[in-house]
Design a protein that fits this description.
Number of helices: 1
Radius of gyration: 13 Å
Helix content: under 10%
CATH topology: Virus Head Decoration Protein, Chain: A
Mean pLDDT: 94
Strand content: 35-45%
Low-confidence stretches: none
CATH architecture: Beta Barrel
Largest sheet: 10 strands, antiparallel
């Protein structure tokens, strides 16, 4: 899977971004997809299990274990990466963000949002709880 290549310093919330924050359960870098684990801490989202695929947002800053990390729950943010306008982006592995075509069979499908331009994603998270079984139309 080819996750988008993010420059952490380029990850910036948009004016309509709805933000939240939580303490990190692992080392997190700005631009990674995150989920809340059973302890209520942020961890790196991954599409290999329903729990870890249930992303809550995109990290806006980095942090080590127990440091506070801000994240975008909904709205627009500059991704710090080159995107394909109109492309839907999903949870990948280890906090990665991938285009829909890179989801493999058996991986959980959590929509993070759509690219409004080559730099901005409109975050509209939808954790489906289902795995990919065939081609996506």
């Amino acid at each position: 899977m080819a996750a988008i290549s993010v420059t952490a310093t380029g990850v910036i919330p948009g004016s309509n971004a709805q933000l939240a924050q939580a303490r990190a359960a692992a080392t997190i870098t700005a631009g990674q997809a995150v989920y809340l684990d059973a302890t209520g801490k942020l961890n790196l989202a991954a599409n290999n299990a329903a729990l870890t695929a249930a992303a809550v947002g995109i990290a806006l800053n980095g942090g080590a274990v127990n440091q506070v990390v801000d994240y975008v729950m909904k709205g627009q943010y500059t991704a710090g990466a080159t995107l394909v306008q109109g492309q839907p982006y999903y949870v990948g592995t280890a906090g990665g963000i991938i285009p829909v075509d890179d989801i493999a069979g058996g991986e959980y499908m959590t929509l993070l949002g759509h690219a409004l331009s080559t730099t901005v994603i409109d975050v509209t998270i939808k954790a489906t709880g289902v795995t990919k079984t065939g081609a996506i139309a």
